[in-house]
Amino acid sequence: MATERTFSIIKPDATRRNLTGKVNAVLEGAGLRIVAQKRIWMTTQQAETFYGVHKERPFFRDLVTFMTSGPVVVQVLEGDNAVAKNREVMGATNPANAAEGTIRKLFAESIEANSVHGSDSPENAATEIAYFFAGTEIVG
Ligand code: ADP
Ligand code: MG
């Protein structure tokens, strides 16, 4: 299996409830290694650009407001099939549909405040990692 990197965000609903360590424990328990991590407060412009693919969706404005409502933890995760593995351990977008043991089932508050982001393809992972991290900040 190929070692891969993916991009992850611990969202404001989770940092507000002091769940960074608990989320990280689930990620690490799934075999993902946190090879870069920093706590930031996203600007509106950063959130709009990051979620630009959703800009025509009805929830876009609320999503940007939510993602800038408090600190987030941006991360690079590494492991075998890291993109798919992280999507699996995150669980479904809507926590009501998320499988037992997934981060969203364990911690999410709502379909919007769903605790984590994870890249949906290796191509998007590379773009998202480069948006938040310099190569020198990633130590595998
Ligand atoms: P995912 O994060 O699972 O990849 P999407 O890319 O479809 O999901 O959506 C991005 C984010 O937008 C979600 O994680 C969630 O925070 C928010 N979101 C998605 N769908 C809705 C919705 N119907 N109502 C409110 N917020 C939503
Ligand atoms: Mg998505």
Overview of the molecule:
The structure is a single chain. By secondary structure, the protein is an alpha+beta fold. 39% of the residues lie in helices and 20% in strands. It has helices at residues 12-16, 20-29, 44-50, 60-67, 82-90, 103-107, 122-132, and strands spanning 3-10, 33-40, 72-80, 116-118. Strands 2-3-1-4 form a four-stranded antiparallel sheet. The structure holds adenosine-5'-diphosphate and magnesium ion (MG). Adenosine-5'-diphosphate binds next to loops.
Brief overview:
The protein is of the alpha+beta class. The chain contains seven helices and four strands; from the N terminus they run βααβααβααβα.
Secondary-structure class: alpha+beta
Number of helices: 7
Helix content: 25-40%
State the separation between the terminal residues, measured CA to CA: 17 Å
Overall morphology: globular
Largest sheet report = 4 strands, antiparallel
Bound molecules: adenosine-5'-diphosphate, magnesium ion
> How large a portion of the residues is in β-strands, by DSSP E?
15-25%
> Residue-averaged pLDDT, rounded?
98
| Strands side by side in the biggest sheet | 2-3-1-4
Helix/strand order, N-terminal first: EHHEHHEHHEH
In total, how many beta strands? 4
Poorly predicted sequence stretches spanning 5 or more consecutive residues:
none
CA radius of gyration is: 14 Å
